[in-house]
Amino acid sequence: MNTTLNLGSLGASTGILAAGLIFAYGVWLGRRDLGLRAAMGVMVAVLLGGLLPMIVMWSVPQLLFPSSGGLRGSVLMVLWNIVSAGLAFLPWLVAGNWLEILRREGPNT
Q: In terms of Cα–Cα distance, which of 92, 105, 102 is closest to 11?
């Protein structure tokens, strides 16, 4: 059985890494419950960051097939690439927020 996981995008793979790291930090602090909630929040952000571009691309066909000679299609593609790159950082933003919550809550005593 092949156990290779091909995620296809850097945002998804680094988002999964962020979820694992935030969960490990929560366990290290003794706050496994908050660490698990944080990891699930990051994973939802990974799904949102991965699915939102596809939904928009399917609903706006000009992004899938820009006209070869039109400036409008090229501008739409450039703008959409900028938005997609920004969405790749969404899981890390969520993980950073949860990191602050875990730090504020402190170790479980």
A: 92
What pTM was computed for the model?
A: 0.73
**Residue 6 neighbours by CB distance under 10 Å:** 6
Beta strands in the chain (DSSP E): none
**pLDDT, average across residues 35-51:** 89
Residue 3 confidence (pLDDT): 42
CA 104 – CA 87 distance, rounded (Å): 26
Residues 6+ apart with CB under 8 A from 35: 22, 23, 24, 25, 26, 27, 29, 102
Question: Helix, strand, or coil here: 51?
Answer: helix
Residue type, 95: A
Work out whether the CA dihedral 13, 16, 22, 25 comes out positive or negative: negative
**How far from 105 is each of 33, 74, 100, CA to CA, in Å?**
12, 48, 9
